[in-house]
Specification:
This protein has 2 domains: 73 residues, Cyclin A, domain 1; 108 residues, Jelly Rolls. The protein is 23% helix and 30% strand. It contains 4 helices and 8 strands, in the order H-H-H-H-E-E-E-E-E-E-E-E. The longest helix is centred in the N-terminal third of the chain and has 17 residues. 20% of the residues are buried.
Length: 196
């Protein structure tokens, strides 16, 4: 297979410059992306070769615009859609901290399809967040409480509060704004995603 991933020895790609004492993972989300991809092979019914093909069989502009573990997540999304585990309309996320060249502020975009409920909740150790509903409706879990959401609602969430989303019948689009956080992030997965 000849594609954007196969750049070894190609003159235009330049030399490979290894990072001294490079860690296996630069951030906690990379470790999770790797683990989730491996773990989903069993229920998803794919093997290592299929997983690699899903990562490498991407248009060059898409492949070259992503970091290594962003490619892993994109490959996982492809496999899950192909197996009917999710639809492309059910989930979408974009993260802009590095694109803003910001050390103090993060902005992320999430789109959930109609009726989608977050499979996991999370909290933070120190990072405060605010969420702006830009389209649709749904509900948000904040600790042990559930709150209704509609377009242009803004919700501030303290670091230690567990949060998770559920989209309404028309889906839910949210922009998350996060404050400064420790290197590599400080998100902590909650034991349960939802409370009734």
């Amino acid at each position: 297979m000849d594609g954007a991933h196969d750049m070894g020895g190609v003159a235009w790609s330049g030399p490979v410059v290894p990072e001294p004492d490079e860690p296996m993972f630069h951030a906690e989300w990379e470790r999770r992306a790797f683990a989730i991809t491996l773990a989903m092979g069993m229920p998803g019914g794919w093997n290592i070769d299929m997983s690699r093909f899903a990562r490498e069989n991407r248009p060059p502009e898409d492949y070259l615009s992503k970091s290594y573990f962003q490619i892993w997540l994109a490959g996982l999304e492809t496999l899950m859609v192909e197996r009917g585990l999710v639809t492309r309309e059910e989930i979408e996320a974009r993260f802009a901290r590095k694109h803003l060249d910001s050390e103090e502020l993060g902005v992320s975009y999430f789109r959930y399809g109609p009726g989608f409920r977050s499979p996991m909740g999370h909290r933070h150790r120190v990072q405060e967040e605010a969420y702006v509903v830009v389209s649709g409706s749904g509900r948000i879990r904040l600790g042990d409480e559930i709150h209704e959401l509609r377009q242009w609602d803004v919700v501030r969430v303290s670091p230690e509060t567990v949060r998770a989303f559920e989209a309404g019948a028309d889906g839910l689009e949210v922009i998350a704004i996060g404050s400064d956080r420790p290197e590599g992030g400080d998100g902590v997965r909650a034991e349960t995603a939802w409370v009734e």
